[in-house]
Amino acid sequence: MVESNNDEVIRGNKENLDKKVRIRTKEELEVRKIEFLKICELLDRLKIRYFLQTGILLGAIRHKGFIPWDWDVELSVYANEVEPKMDQLLHEIEQTGFKVEKYYKELSRLKIDFIGKFSRETTVYTIQGWNHDKEKRVFWRNKFRVPDHLFNKMSKIKLFEKDHFVPDPPESYLTHQYGDWKKPLQTSDKSIYLTKRFSGISPIKIFLKKIISLIK
Questions:
Q1: Is residue 5 very low, low, confident or very high in pLDDT (cuts 50, 70, 90)?
Q2: Which of 6, 84, 89, 143 could pair covalently with 200 via S-S, beta carbons 3.0-4.6 A apart?
Q3: C-alpha separations of 139 from 2, 111, 146, 211 in Å
Q4: pLDDT 10s digits, 49-77
Q5: What is the pTM of this model?
């Protein structure tokens, strides 16, 4: 999907558009597809359960592929399952031809950032861990929160000829994270594209950012 002339895509600020959220080339998206499937195969081989969430899920549902201006690919896992396998996972990522840029082993922010053929200006890959708070009935990582019923039961969707687990139902999850997820937003500003109930960002800040972006 590319930008239309009738405001179908709401632009963010000019600095973001010039850099992070540029439309990726056909070659860049093809390499991203190959590398994404490679990561999925690696996780399957290590028997690590993963699921699609955030922009990769939004792209799969809304674009039937990647969001053309997205800058990262995030695969979600259950932190308590991955923590014992972190060293092995880091080793296998490097052995598979990727370069690990940074990682955190702590359950509260378990995460691995790495790149493939291109630099991080084209695509950053992330494996991120989620924790379950049974008492509050949420899954969480850092400041982000998701009602646990969306992660407790998973369904499957097909993306690039492979089945992947996703929150169930995926549309309800996307509404929780993005609000009106059917309307494309070409911006990297989290206060514009994430809801407060997901991100904890002040609704006043979100409102002001949207007004500023529309004025620009």
A1: very low
A2: 143
A3: 33, 15, 5, 31
A4: 999 999 999 999 999 999 999 999 999 99
A5: 0.85
Where are any strands of DSSP class E within the chain? 10-11, 50-52, 72-78, 99-104, 111-115, 124-133, 138-141, 144-147, 154-159, 162-167, 185-186
- Taking each helix axis as running N to C, give the angle between helix 86-95 and helix 26-45, from 0 to 180 degrees, rounded to the nearest 10: 140
Tell me the C-alpha distance between 145 and 138, whole Å: 6
Is pLDDT at 112 greater than 60 in this prediction? yes
Q: Please tell me the distance from the alpha carbon of residue 49 to that of residue 44, in angstroms, as a whole number.
A: 7
Q: Where are the domains of the chain?
A: 23-182
> Is residue 133 scored above 50 in pLDDT?
yes
Which CATH code, of 3.40.50, 3.30.460, 3.30.2390, 1.10.3210, is assigned to 23-182? 3.30.460
With H, G, I as helix, E, B as strand and everything else as coil, classify residue 173. helix
Please name which of 111, 109, 92, 110 lies closest in space to residue 101, comparing C-alpha atoms. 111
> Do 154 and 173 touch, CB atoms closer than 8 A?
no
Query: Is residue 107 a contact partner of residue 88, using CB atoms and an 8 Å limit?
Result: no
Q: Is the dihedral of CA 207, 52, 67, 95 positive or negative?
A: positive
Nearest to 131 by CA among 108, 154, 106, 103: 108
Let me know how long the chain is. Answer: 216
